[in-house]
Amino acid sequence: MDPGPLDEPYSRLDGSSPTARPTRPRMPVKKSDLYRSLWKSCDELRGGMDASQYKDYVLVLLFVKYVSDKYAGQPDALLDVPREGSFAAMLDARNKPDIGDRLNKIVARLAEANDLAGVIDVADWNDPDRLGRGPEMVARLTNLVGLFARPELDFRSNRAEGDDLLGDAYEYLMRHFATESGKSKGQFYTPAEVSRVMAQVIGLGRATGSDQTIHDPACGSGSLLIKAHDEALSRTGLDLALYGQEMDNATRALARMNMILHGCATAEVALGNTLAAPQFTAGPTALKRFDFVVANPPFSTKAWSNGIDPAHDAFGRFALGVPPQRNGDYAFLLHALACLKSTGKGAVILPHGVLFRGNAEGAIRRAIVDRGYVSGIIGLPPNLFYGTGIPACIVVLDKSGAAARDGVFLIDASRGFRKDGNKNRLRAQDIHRIVDTFQRRVDVPGYARLVPLAEIAGERNAYNLNLPRYVDAGAAEDRHDLEAHLRGGIPERDLDALGAYWDALPGVREALVAPERPGYARLVRPAAEVRQVVREHPSFAAFAERVQARFDAWRAEAEPRLRAIAVGDRPKALIEELSEALLDAFRGVPLVDAYDVYQHLLDYWAETMQDDVYLVAQSGWREAARPRLLPKPAKGEKRAEQPDFRVGKLEFRADLIPPALLVARYFAEEQRAVEAREAELAAVEQELEALGEEHGGEGGLLEGVVDDAGGISAAAIQARLGELTFGEETAEEGELLVRYERLLREQAGQRKAVKAARAALEARVAKQYDVLGEEEVREIVVADKWVGRSAAAVRAEIERALHSFVDRVRLLAERYETALPIFADEVDCLTQKVDAHLRRMGVAWK
Question: Which residue among 243, 610, 659, 828 is least packed, with the fewest CB closer than 10 Å?
């Protein structure tokens, strides 16, 4: 591997000789750097092919690099990586005229050694139509292989192995490939968030034995199957057997690689059409039965019956009804049911149409509901899936206790998501809310409801399961009160609707409103003062203290756990532990949504904290806190990262402890001095700008010294002063020129002083990094950075509650502030004034 800047001899930040430590250890892998490097590799292939094609090259290279780093030269390893089938051989092939043919042979050798023929060797590395001809192909493939030799793609240094950095990177690539692959080519990937929901609602986290099995009859790249496996493994430690089937050979290859990269090398992924030729059978007329089935089949496929006679299906899958010939949604659902054991549970993603379409589908729906097979239905937001923007639902199947089931649990989760480019994505809080609600099976107005079978089967619904029939998820209508518009006053009905706020803030209602007449009230203070009244009320202070106490209790448990992070720890397990504790701490807190607080922590984790924790878990606190020396960019190349500070000509990036944290803790006085200098400079520059705007235009006293770019230089002023003959006519101009020149000199001096002050502060900060002890690092990172961010988020939630309450009260007050008769009187008065003016002007307009 080519040496990177982090393999160079280590030198102290102050430039002194490296006496204590001769070399700097290789830095650990950061998730963000890993993802960025992988996506950059795709740039080498864009243009000659689309994402649905170049993913085959990038993912194979990732696979070869990973298994070479992990298994090459190791006896009795999970995979055999011969020298001629390794990434090292790929490095040797760089710049060779026959590099494409060489790469084909290297991949074929690795495939042959591990029974992966037809899996990793599906892409042609010597295809001139895709990769270019002659020197173009050589350059492209050489650059592509070289990108995988970068330090951040050295998987030998991954010490948080249980957290599956590589598997996450594979998922990252698959999601981006699906995004770029277009409408008809992105269906090989089920969004990870939806996969997690499915795995949890069917109870994989409560698996009971290592002999249990999971099946996906339309597994695509295997992402859904792997998430199901991970749910069981992470919750119970059980390594459940995986079985998938996929009809597209290239997509099956992705699934096989995906399984290996996720530590599921024994998973069986069969090739073939699930409906026409199921590969997992217990004989010519019986399907193999599984404990769990998950599936995201193609929506409404029209050719589902090709190769089979549904009316005489050998496996009896369509005994409850034959789906329409040109719509296969229920064909896959019935297949999933047939694959389940008598105690099995499953989840299938289908378009919303399966809930209400009639005829053959209506009859099938009635049959499976009557038999109690449908445990629940979860309506999802639109535009979640690649290849389609239509809304979909998860149909949850459960054969255990089906005969006694007397209701279907419905969730309308269609409004919980965030935008991500041109797609929608479930947030962590959306996933948690869905799963919590489904597992508790409690009614939540506007969100979830357990609907009795009698209601579903009744004449009004007739087995129509369209969610709005049972769960009204629409926003409550904000109705205007006609009497309040006519006579004024705030309707008590609207004030009563704010009951959660009045309950949480006792006494505030009395401080804000008073009765005006039966059913109506008035503000006792101007609307503009509502915020102040609420903020200064003792109840609000008590509410804020209660919320802060919940956070402080969580913090007391979280900080020691964070300070105890050690090399080899699993960051994913850590954030799950902390986030679940935070969610529990805020359950039941009035006016603050516990899921919103939970989401703040998870957002910060994704944005910053996970990189920090991975650094610490791989290299330890002290080493993770050391700034990185940034390499000089090649000529003509943009810098990938901006430096945090400089020492001489060397530029450094501090990942774990940004300089601002050291400044705040150790150099606050010096920072204030710099800010004072900057304020003085800003004042001078503001004065210069004001003079230029006032006198620099046409006919202005400074017009003669303004250059073509609109600037004024000291040289131009000197030249103009030399031209002036001082007298009464030029005195004002001369005084202004002298004043402006003085300000320019002052500006130059202030800029020099600011630059020197900043440089001195940067030098002190740089030295501080070298003297930080491990306990200091822990204190700064945990207290000032990680927990400090969460504390700010909780304060923001308190403010959000205040704003929501105050804005609603003010809206109601302003809506009914002026009664309609008063408006009518004002209109009459103004009309009379207009009439009088027109008559005086001699205009008759009526």
Answer: 828
**Which of 338, 336, 365, 368 shows the shortest CA–CA distance to 349?**
336
String of DSSP letters for 445-474: TTTEEEEEHHHHHSTTTTT---GGGT---S
Q: How far is CA 430 from CA 246, 373, 572, 699, 767, in A?
A: 30, 26, 19, 64, 45
* Whole-prediction pTM: 0.83
pLDDT for the residue numbered 52? 62
Q: The dihedral of CA 287, 293, 295, 300: what is its sign?
A: positive
Instruction: List alpha helices for 640-787, DSSP H.
Output: 659-666, 668-695, 714-723, 728-771, 774-779
* Cβ atoms of 782 and 567 closer than 8 Å: no
Range of the domain at 696: 666-771
Closest CA to 398 of 363, 446, 439: 439
pLDDT in tens, 439-476: 999 999 999 999 999 999 999 999 999 999 999 877 66
Pairing mode, if any, of strands 650-653 and 628-629? antiparallel
Split into its structural domains, the chain has a count of 2
DSSP 167: H
From 121, 155, 181, the end of a domain falls on 181
Q: What CA–CA distances, in Å, run from 432 to 191, 197, 437, 602, 796? A: 16, 8, 8, 12, 21
Nearest of 108, 787, 812, 136 to residue 530 by alpha carbon: 812
- pLDDT tens figures, 333-385: 999 999 999 999 999 999 999 999 999 999 999 999 999 999 999 999 998 88
Residue 5, C-beta contacts closer than 8 angstroms, at least 6 positions apart: 628, 629, 630, 631
358 located within any domain: no
**Are the CB atoms for 508 and 541 separated by under 8 Å?**
no
pLDDT in tens, 540-583: 999 999 999 999 999 999 999 999 999 989 898 999 999 999 99
In a domain, residue 127? The reply is yes
State both tokens at 383.
């535009």
Of 417 and 388, the structure prediction assigns the larger pLDDT to: 417
Q: Residue 153 sits in a domain of what CATH number?
A: 1.20.1260.30
- Asked if residue 106 has pLDDT above 50, the reply is yes
Distance (Å, rounded) from C-alpha 179 to C-alpha 386? 6
Last residue of a domain, one of 715, 736, 771: 771
Position 461, amino acid: N
Residue 455 vs residue 36, higher pLDDT: 455
Q: In this structure, is residue 334 part of a structural domain?
A: no
